[in-house]
Amino acid sequence: MTGRDPGAADRGTARDAPAFPRRLWRALDRHPPPGALAVGRRWRSPLRGPWLTSVFGLVLLIGLPIVIITGLLDYAAYGPQFGQALPRDVGWLRPPPFEWPTRPDWLFRVSQGLHVILGIVLVPVVLAKLWSVIPKLFAWPPVRSTAQLLERLSLLLLVGGILFQIATGLLNVQYAYLFGFDFYTAHYFGGWVFIAAFVSHVALKLPRMISALRSRPFLAELRQGPDDTRPEPPDPDGLVAPRPGPATVSRRGALTLVGGLSLLLGGLTVGQTTDGPLRRTALLMPRGRQPGTGPNGFPVNRSAAAAGVTQERTGPGWRLTLAAAGRTVTLDRQQLLALPQHTATLPIACVEGWSTRQTWTGVRLRDLAAIAGAGEPASALVRSLERAGLFNQAQLQSNQILGPDSLLALKVNGVDLALDHGYPARVIVPALPGVHCTKWVATIDFRTTAGG
């Protein structure tokens, strides 16, 4: 097979470089480390080439922006204006502030579910994309020009960024905190590093990806078996093997394998966002599976035992304290049950991606604000009986207090809340992250200003 030299374009760039960099590239070219060239020649798969790499790249170009956008939306849902989104101090990397809506009530459920499930589904595609370009890691010299050096640095941030986000994200949904640092901070700032590298890479490679996709008809490629599979012509990026071996699998087979693995991961994950038999299939999600039966048999993120909340503290002596404008009102559970009750079927969703939809009954938060003498409060600080933990309190926006379905829930599915689900009372607000639907509520402080 003949064709132009894959390194010709890079060497041409090197000839046009200033004298010192040009001498450096030539010195690197003349003195490869022992075995470097031999290792590069061992990658002989005839499947590798711009077309297959571009197919994987197109899937990621469609999927990764959805993961990025939903991740930023999820950060906004935690109320960064109250300093309760993690990490708290992000400087100019804070997204534009806006009031998180309570409608549609499934907003956080869908955004967080998409973020987690799509992130997992894309893992085989990411690994396949890295496999398709791995010969470039062994190219010598590693760079032939200053421009290529900058491109390699952006690739380092891109590959390192996405692998870091995948690893920390998967460990988080498995509750396996092995990294020795704060997940929220690392995942957020790591995400911005990846976003910058991703945007730069797309700007550099999009024209080449489009031309590569146009070079081979997609449907025609899918009709070819291993016997019909031929290497692509040599390319400037050096993706095509210099001495390709015989094909043991077709490009159709490679795409089928990657797609099948993605579907399998999706099938083992999506059940955590549904109610019913499919929840038992969420084998990759330890907290997303159905933990029991009956009205209280839906998932729980943090149990009462883990939170240090005992039956003694939630028994007959429990009282809810409402505060507003310097006055307080204290109510026991029987007094709360005697107030007008409202029932709403609302989802509750966790940052790890699981969610469920249940029927909640309790007192509207806006009615409690009126009892406390708050009128139309700008915000409310809800504190839990849980004395420690990142989420033992939450601040609510005005629309989250005044919404018709925003409740201090006393019952679920027609029965009293179980202790693990927040008995004697918990907050349920449409579209609010589950960790801010505070359980074991002790006090609600209604405030006339949003910042407290």
Automatic annotation (TrEMBL):
SUPFAM superfamilies linked: Oxidoreductase molybdopterin-binding domain
Swiss-Prot/TrEMBL keywords: Membrane, Transmembrane, Transmembrane helix
Transmembrane segments: 51-73, 113-134, 155-177, 183-204
Domain Oxidoreductase molybdopterin-binding: 317-448
Source species, domain of life: Bacteria
Region (Disordered): 223-247
One Pfam short name: Oxidored_molyb
Biased composition range(s): Basic and acidic residues: 224-233
PANTHER family cross-referenced by the UniProt entry: BLL0505 PROTEIN, PROTEIN-METHIONINE-SULFOXIDE REDUCTASE
Protein name per UniProt: Oxidoreductase molybdopterin-binding domain-containing protein
Organism encoding this protein: Micromonospora craterilacus
Classification of source organism: Bacteria, Bacillati, Actinomycetota, Actinomycetes, Micromonosporales
